[in-house]
Amino acid sequence: MTVEQARPDRLRFGYADCRDGQIHYRRQGTAGKPVVAFYHQTASSGAMFEKVMARLADGYDCIAFDTPGFGYSYEPAEVDSVGYYTDRMMEALDDLGIERFHACGHHTGGCLAVEMPVRYPGRVLSLAMIGPVEATAEQRAEFRKHFSAPFKPEPSGAYLDEAWRYLAGIGADQTLELHHRELVDHLRSWEALTVAFNRVWDQDFAAFHQRVDCPMLHMCSRDDVIWPFYEQARAARPDAEGVVVTGADFQCDVDADGVAGGLRDFLDRQGG
Amino acid sequence: MSDMRFGYVDAGEGQVHYRRLRGDGPTLVFLHQTASSSAMWEAVMRRLAGGYDMIALDTPGFGGSYDPDEVPSIGYYTGVMREALGALGVDRYHVCGHHTGVCVAVELAAEDSDRVLSLSMIGPVQLTQAERDEFRKHFSTPFAPTADGGYLKRTFDYLAGLGADGDLALHHRETADTVRAWRGRVQAYNAVWDQDFPALLARVRCPKLMMAARDDVLWPYLERAAEAHPDAVTAVLAGANFEPDLDPDGTANALRDFLAAKEA
User: Fold this and answer.
1) What is the pLDDT of residues A72-111, one digit of tens each?
2) How far is B170 from chain A (nearest CA, A)?
């Protein structure tokens, strides 16, 4: 295990061990403050939380993990369910010596995080989900058609343009820097992308969501592709708090102030 | 769980990323070409598994290492690598570089003669100043991100021209690494064409291994380097500019034979 002391002014990278390999993470924050664990969307990496982490670093110890198959984390041999990711992420937290934490997941990251308070009682102080995937079986079947395998390497190189346009389609073209970074992450994870999306559309998110017993925050932007699921999540768990931000599917980059402000307001009231 | 381990070490102005495959025997350090990463050494490292403590580092600006603001010379990389190896507790080691990695390795071998046991080079950069200026024209154009995404296909085609299209997985991986390191690529090449490599190589006293494939852009300079250094061992590989990926057996065997002879 790598021990990294978190300091508010420094973003640090490291690896934690889980059962099947090394989990890559980036960490920024204040040692001794409550831990906020961040879980990214498909097929990004922990890089997507850097701006939000920097904004919370004075009051929290922020750690963003790369899901197996993404970023610099190991390549899993087989991912049979979203719960596979959940279990490996809990092992990574164990390796870092983190017992209790606030969880924050974006899209797929929310899917793996929603299982944490249900399957690991007593560990999760609060759960924040940006774009909670509260979808019906019919909706999941429909999304599976569009979000499964948007591109694949082939000798002509045309897949690069497909990947670029796919990312533009979900709003990564709001800045060139973001579009480029997401493209790099997507190229690295083109195989894991298909695996993760298929497991997401397999998951009965709503069943886990109903059983979450810690304080919960829902967040979304109106131009996020899964905005309808956010509205369904709000209806399914009216006891949870809700915050509307902007930035299409890339709120953490495009509306970092909005996301960090909403998170801080919520987290500051939870304790830790 | 894989026995290939990844990690970071503090050096220079940030964290240097590396992969390490431990084994019994001396330390063997690998330095990659521009604009790859330590991933280019995995196939060779796996073939040499067991016999060495192998460490492949990502040069600043590449792979998982930090992005430097400025790279005034190859000496910048050399200093960071020296610091990284020191922080990893490496005392004496064999070093193997590929292209730009050779430029860094030759400085380590010339300056740290008490630490560097041998110098292995895939594509020794035995060029005159006039030749370096000619290379500079072709290997300094940045593939900067453009809103239309056209830089991606330009990168892909450029890598095909260097032989990465010999294997689709390689072509894809190199594209991802080169796109990630578009700034680092310009920094590194500018430093490479400034370096007086032949003068540095002339200062190296440890055993030397020189290798290249006939379709490597640096192939013409292998013979020249060998003529200047008749004491060096030479080996001809296959695989254009990607010998460790496209000819991993040839590369690993040449290294193993050379290193075994040094230990004998």
Assistant:
1) 999 999 999 999 999 999 999 999 999 999 999 999 999 9
2) 11
